What does this fold into?
Amino acid sequence: MIAEKFYIEKFLNRADADRLLDFSLGLHPVRAVILPWGNLARFVSLGSYTEFPSPHHIKRYGDGVRLSTAPKEVKQIAAVLTEFAKTPVNYISFNAYLNERDGMAFHQHREDKVNPDQSVWVVSLGAVRAVNLRPVGCEDKSKYETIYPAHGSLYIIPSAYNTTHEHEVPSSKTPCGVRVGINCKSVPAPPLQLSLSAETADRPSIYDCHAGKKYPADAVYVGREVRDRQTGKVAWPATPFGNTNRRRTETPEGKAAWAADVAEKMKDPEFRKQVESLRGKNLLCWCKVGEPNCHARVWLELANAVRS
It folds into this structure.
């Protein structure tokens, strides 16, 4: 049962819950949602933040949607839930139910069905509103689970429930005030597509760092540790960007493996900042200039595209 296993009434203390509610109600409403989902979907979206926004997400919520540049209150609740869930909680969405007429009919999160973890952590603020869960399509109300999330509470919809169950916030028959639901998820990084396209004159380039080759004095080395063959001393220190698994990016298999390595690294917000620090800089590698399969080309492209 959700109420027994996945509900924490005093997840936030009263002072923290009050502050978070005040912050939430100070957000500029993004849009009012009134949709004919079965019976009803009526609420106000106060904004949504994620580290991996889709083009649709950016179009709906604007450019300031990245969690890494969100207000400190959003980052704080993401950090608290990440600590609690022991997994990166990197999607935070604020929805407000303004009065008893607002609500959302039974539904699942279809967009999450491709994710390994489809869990949803919901922090409730403000007025107490019922939340119902039922097996998919079930009309027998004796099989419904109902919880009444208190101000500052947390309830969790387990990953499996997004397949086996539906949930709703029904409209109320009695007057009630504003309730804010903060829906939080762990969203995986999107698959990384490596185009490995050639440089152009209006962007930084990759240079060969072999002895005797010419390159800009401020170019940044992005390879593995390399030692002098005669002295054994480190000639080129290791960097976070080295192809440490020695993927052969000239083969389809090696390119796919390197893409997987990069995608795994890019899940780390701190590493993303390191990549961003390369923006606008020329890079150094051991490949010949213009080599289309150079591993450093990935960092060139990401550094001049990524925004942490």
